[in-house]
Fold these 2 entries.
Entry 1:
Amino acid sequence: MAEKPNYVAAAFKRQENIISLAGFCAAGVIFNPGFLLLAGALEVAYLWMVSTIPRFQRVVNSERNRSVSVFDAKEKDRLLLRLPGEERDRYLELAGIRQKVYESWQNRDAVTQGLLQPSVDKLDYLLDTFLRVQITLNLMREHLLDSNKDHLDRQLRATEADLKRDLPAKLKDAKAKSLEILKQRTARLDKLDTDMEVLKTQLDNIEHTIKLVGDQSISLSDPQQIAVQIDGAVTEVGESERSIKEVETFLGAA
């Protein structure tokens, strides 16, 4: 069983907490020692409150599992070859934005680079997740096409019509079982169709976030705002992780 994440430690390491704590400590050393006591009290309250928030815990879980979703260069090349040309170009455009963002941040001072490094790592995670969802959506489209749902619907209606006729008992039982199987298959395909729309929206959100970060990295007037936006996208991915894994398992793509 995997070890439970340390949410308190994760809350302590957050960028906004380190900045605030450093500010209070500096004030305590320079102006009044009372600030050190205030910093300690506020820190305890902050760690307790933030570490117990379910949304924050999902962020930590997602970040902790990030390495599972990261592909090496060879794996990325292999996966990209499985995508239609338009989807491949879509991913490569975002990869190019990520590289420009990284180069822009590398030109900043050491302090800013240190503050933004976690955001760079999360940007890589979002990009890898984007590719993972693209692959999953492609498999879903192929599965739905191979399943020929229109044919299944016609079979289901025909079987329902047969059961309304006067049939021998054994034949009627066989057709009833067949109808139940057909209903289960069509229901699962309907759910898969709904899941596709959810994942498409997830894909669009990741794309918009990466492009927004690319736009903001030019000026980089507020590094913390960029970090918050990336954190929000990571949280959303974490909340959708279960549905992504369910689809992958169903398609045999996990």
Entry 2:
Amino acid sequence: IQVKDKDYLVVGSTPEEMVNLGYKPIGKNFPVFLHPKTKEEYALARTEKKIGKGYHGFKFYTSPGVTLEEDLKRRDITINAIAEDEDGNIYDPFNGKDDIRNKIIRHVSDAFIEDPLRVLRVARFAALDFEFKVKTETLDLMKKVVLSGELKSLSVERVVTEVTKGLQGKNPDIMLH
């Protein structure tokens, strides 16, 4: 699949340092900044804790001490928890490359259930390529999120975005299933 966007992660910095370097913050409580020239998004390494309902019900913890692995652990699926540094070194603490090779969609941790959008993202990823299979354990967590009623907290715009992307896949009926 062709790369459509890049996510930049900054480890070992602070919001104040980012602003001093000319980056522009996006929002008040979200540790993401726009590059002064390219306008690409740079996110501070962070951990998060669920404090309320829905996609926005998180408190973020950023610190220069948050490690790359800690940040990657909060990701939804293993194939989205792979990083590459500026020298081309690959960091894959949750074996996402193996899951790509084996055509598996698997959650990173049980924190998966904290964000209802992840249910739609997994369904979208499954629809992109009919050879990828969602692990039973991940499907079980998806069902738990659905039964919790948390999907109702998602904005219509987020749902439409994920469903539209899924419908553009090779096997869109998988997303609907």
